[in-house]
Amino acid sequence: MAAQKKKSLGEAIDELINALSDLDESSMLIAVKAACEQLNIPLDFVRTSVQIPPHPGVLFPMPTGPSPEMGGDIRSLKESKDPRNDIEMACVVAYYLKNSAPADERKPEIVAEDIEKYFTQADYPLPKVPKQVLPNAKAAGYLDSVGRGKYRLNPVGHNLVAHSLPRKKGKKS
Length: 173
Prior knowledge:
The protein is 50% helix and 5% strand. A hairpin with a 2-residue loop joins strand 1 (143-147) and strand 2 (150-153). A two-stranded antiparallel ribbon has the order 1-2. Helix 4 (74-81) crosses helix 5, helix 5 (86-100) packs across helix 8 (155-164) and helix 6 packs across helix 7. The protein has 2 domains: 13-65, no CATH class; 74-164, Arc Repressor Mutant, subunit A (Orthogonal Bundle). It is mainly α. It has helices spanning 9-20, 25-38, 43-49, 74-81, 86-100, 112-121, 130-139, 155-164; strands spanning 143-147, 150-153.
């Protein structure tokens, strides 16, 4: 039997997210708490070291102030990811809509109307031709077309936002 390759931190995080994404919030919290107990990670460590957004009916106390990654606002996520162009910002918006937006705004796809709305909320300059940003992001390999004018962040786009942004100083994009 071949030795299994050790996962990177990003791969492990992606695997956790995929495993939990189909569960409701309460079940997610139970799973995370159980995993911490199984791995002997004290919940005090999780509470003080990891920012998790507060949810009604939580199983254990959580820190205040959501992180931009989980439940924060689009402006905070934009500031933490520091996109350098309209295509990167569109990926940040698509990531936000899929993973971090308030529950009533979450959706797996992004459309041209979202560009103006979320670029404005994030205090990011509007592109000259907003409706062209998503086709450009698709052409760059970050989004997949999923229907008339609808796009979905693909794994390349997800990894850009989750693991490559912000880019290191001095590194060209």
